[in-house]
């Protein structure tokens, strides 16, 4: 019967025709873009040759440009026969991405390297409903992982810092980027979140922290309400930008939220996600230098990411801007020594540099100071070459070296050295390149700006029930300094603000009082297990003055289960943040502290159970016996005793009589 | 005179033992027992053993005749339909309710409509986007009274083919290999990958808006897509290692390809994601193109130098033969055939079709798919609840919080609501099926919330041994005192009784000789 039915086949092409009406759209064929050849390499270069046979440039600033064309530099133009396809050439396809590397020698043979990467997202329309069928998000260079997270948590600004090590500001001067791009030792996170209420903002913040934890393989998910503060004067997003952050829904408010995980270990697993965020993925440009072994084998390193929202009110579109910065300070001789001797062993005697003016023989050697005539290349420091430039942006990858005239900086392309007058090198193409540095006197370094203030904090007191905090402010300059001091202390430090006092060293103005120094104060007391102590005060430090502000606190006892597995290690207290408001803008952080709390004997609960149970058993046994014991008169007892003379007693008596008999 | 308190002492001892056994032990047991909410175990077991025993899905179909008027055609078709359906095994019972067109509620586009059209031949046609089936008949078939049979056969074997196929066997045992597990929200990630670092661009926004938006609209009752696109440089999914070999099988590709970077991006909210990756090899590793992609094609032959592969439960990747040149731009004409291929594969990945290109009338298929998904969701929820029962039975010391019971009861109530909707012959139309689908998604969620309760599955329960270890220092001494005290009491009592017996014997012996002397 089925055969009777003339089945009309509605075939697949119907779908094709209806859903894809323009499948046979005209193909577009354009002209291909010319491959830029090497002829525009390093425009400001002047070659000279030196004894080592390398082509080198000296650092004259003359404007006349001489081309050091070397055939070796030419990239073979293999793309000559580009074919016509539906893939056309769109000349000048460039994406909003920029990367720079700044190399700066520091005193005592240290070297600061600062990587910076800037990315901009595609424009998007805020407040777009998610069930719009035409809603597609596109990504080019901005990392895909961030936008959904920022949208979901309504985050308008996000800052994340991974910092470890000690920045010696007395010899290295100011922190890179005036300290605004590095955190305290450990992980620090703050964000500006748009929300209806503080509670909602906290929920969004928690989601944000958990998402970031996943992206950066870090323990950021341990951020909870006992570590979170809402800063009042510090961390204001307007610190750096004059224009404020946009609000997408005007019935909501912006909340600034911050938390830190003190002394959280930072390692390769945190660096890899940073590199993955970059469009070059560490395969070209300066990001090829970033290697976990070298970045973390440093005296101080800081990884930071800042994302900001910027909107254009006239077009009602917004962009996200991301800035990724990686700064490291390494000690050059120790890194070079490790290259030579990967396994640490003593230097052979013939390579020892001894002071011959002092007693010197086979057993004695007074070492000479470090050699001041040095030469090394960045590939020796990072163990890798720079693989060309990033190719996707208008701006080529740029490397700048900040040195005095006692130093020479060159870029090494295929064994040929080039120099520029400003020591900045624009990298081109995809060939291995290297930066070579040499100094006649490495002690001479580019001008280091002095830090406006030195702040250090320490724990005072002894014992397990109370302690004190002492913060020393030192203004070495000739101008008074206004700064905001921000401190977030864990709830188990019960701070007594009434004990706050000011101590001035002998050289300072002894008349100065606490009220004169502290201009305004914001204090949120801690609440057990749910809120940290939040202390923020504005201080004016008079010129050439050093004073300390100290106060006392009580240590609380934690619950049995609240102690970490290594309870005797102590509890990390995050660094205090000092933001200088005038005369310059600067931010610095104190070191973290290690607070020792009294730790219980962890077998205690079971001991308590056993002891109380024993006492209860004893009491119960006595009571039970009292109640059940048979009461008899003395007479009856005697009768019973004589009747119930135990067999043992009889046996004993018998033995005794036998013994007496034997003696007898 | 001795105080005779033996009975009183025994009574006190008995009281202690009685208190210990009757009050102490039950009190201790109850106070230290873990809370286990009473789950409706038997009901869930019966649901598991007799699947869909209370379901009889009724789909209303409206019949309309355009030329002739057949006043009783719906009754005649109903008889034929019932006969056809009864002749087959049904795992989930279902039937059609054939009704005259005049009884239709709601707009025509939302209901299944059969139009009878007089023509020169006999045949049928199913509308592409609406739910209308047209049955053509000729005068001869009217005379031989074959029309009701034609209609019944058309709608059962063609319009409701998905129901006929899927509901005839136990679909709970079939495991989908290609299709992802159904979820109402799916994330779609479209990526363009190139092995090089040259800047490239693509007209993806216009291509998606023109070709993917209609598909999104079409599928919107079933799934909501969120879509993002991205360009990834320096990543050819490890394909370059295959470039040396001339004959590459799909298995080789599945071994070589490295999807980790695309799959590890789980930043989106949706629990399920699908991918479309368009890959260009690197100029350095494959300057003359990947050898295994259409070996005969030339670079000019742009329509032929890519090949697409479906990765089960992941998505589709499209491998291009030739590397991209610097500053290339993929235009719409390049992307459209890929989008078209992907759309076909998407139906397969969603489980709507078994093979690529099977969908001929998506309007009807999507409607059937809604019903099937609803039933699958019900089955999934039942299975989850059954697993919960099994879990609760196998871990007797595990706590079952009250919330689990609340969620289980809510899920079971919701299940009944959905079945009421499915069984009601009066209702029909898009609104009903959408509502049933939405409720069934909620049902799956509820049953999963019940199962994945953090206090229950995190092995967070108090073992019996631990309980004894903690309480033994208290219970040990007090039990020893009570029981040994009681035993001592009993012994003493026996001794006393013995002594008294002896005494009595002695007394009687003493009295007997005196008596005899008296005698």
Polypeptide structure, described:
The complex is a heterodimer of chains A (664) and B (519). Chain A is of the alpha+beta class and 664 residues long. Among the domains of chain A are: 264 residues, no CATH class; 142 residues, Mu homology domain, subdomain B (Immunoglobulin-like, Sandwich); 37 residues, no CATH class. In chain A, the strands form six sheets. A nine-stranded mixed β-sheet of chain A has the order 10-9-8-11-12-6-5-15-18. In chain A, strands 13, 14, 16, 17 and 19 form a five-stranded antiparallel β-sheet that branches. Chain A has a five-stranded antiparallel β-sheet with strand order 24-25-22-28-29. In chain A, strand 24 and strand 25 form a beta hairpin. The longest helix of chain A has 25 residues. Chain B folds into four domains: 80 residues; 109 residues, no CATH class; 108 residues, no CATH class; 166 residues, no CATH class. In chain B, strands 2-1-3-5-4 form a five-stranded mixed β-sheet. A five-stranded mixed β-sheet of chain B has the order 8-6-9-11-10, with helices on one face. In chain B, strand 4 and strand 5 form a beta hairpin. Strand 7 of chain A pairs parallel with strand 8 of chain B, so a sheet runs across the interface.
Using the alpha-carbon principal axes, give the shape of chain A: extended
Q: Can you tell me the number of structural domains of chain B?
A: 4
Neighbour order of strands in the largest sheet of chain A: 10-9-8-11-12-6-5-15-18
Query: Structural class, from helix and strand content of chain A?
Result: alpha+beta
Uncertain segments of chain A: 1-85
Number of strands of chain B: 12
Strand elements of chain A, count: 30
Helix content of chain A: 10-25%
Q: Order of strands in the sheet with the most strands of chain B?
A: 2-1-3-5-4
| Main sheet specs of chain A | 9 strands, mixed
β-strand percent of chain A reads 25-35%
- Overall outline of chain B: flat
**Average of per-residue pLDDT values of chain A:** 82
Structure annotation, total helices of chain B: 15
| Chain pair with largest interface | A-B, 94 and 96 residues
Order of helices and strands of chain B: HHEHEEEEHHHEEHEHHEEEEHHHHHH
In whole angstroms, the N-to-C terminal distance of chain B is: 33 Å
Rounded mean pLDDT of chain B is 83
Main pleated-sheet profile of chain B: 5 strands, mixed
